[in-house]
Amino acid sequence: MAIPFFLRKGLVVSNHAVNGRSSKSFVDEGRLEVILGAIRPGDLLVIQFAHNDEKATDPVRYTEPWSTYQDYLRLYIEGARARGARPVLATAVERRRFDAGGNAQPSHGDYPAAMRALAEEERVALLDIQALSLQLWQSLGVEETKKYFNWTATEQDNTHFNPPGAIEVARLVARELLRTRVLSPRDLRRLDEAIPESWISWPEAV
Fold this sequence. Notes:
Elements: H1 23-28, H2 31-38, E1 44-47, H3 65-82, E2 86-90, H4 111-122, E3 125-127, H5 129-144, E4 149-151, E5 156-161, H6 163-179
Parallel strand pairs: 1-2, 2-3
Antiparallel strand pairs: 4-5
Helix pairs in contact: 3-4
């Protein structure tokens, strides 16, 4: 939702992300089919899943990192390529999780490694948001990271972002798009500028 703030005018973002979906359930609900019906040659398809693929007790969503997770991701990659679009894989952003010593902890198991391996195998650009967000949470520390998540007196949500968190993670994505040369410097703006959180408005839950 915040990535357009970092892109030059004229670059259009179509946000198909839906809460609670895995790489599997997104396909099973026909949502990938909708994207592939609309995507055009030269478009980018940024693919990021893992949080809900990890739901081992939910057969509707669960995928295994080194088999079905990679298999479903290939559907996105192959579908985009077949239509002349460019797939881009993005590892899952990290949750807010610290050990007793204040060290930021990874929470996605083998899923990031499985995506990295697939990106290399398929020669797909990789945005390593998992590694970068873990570094960011470590640099901010236990208390400061609360300002980026839905962490209030009545809610302690260590997964979902508030507007400042969404903006900073989008900044990581924009910088990775530049680093991997998926986009060029002329495609980006405001990478080092403060973005007002009032620019973000949340959509209704689906």
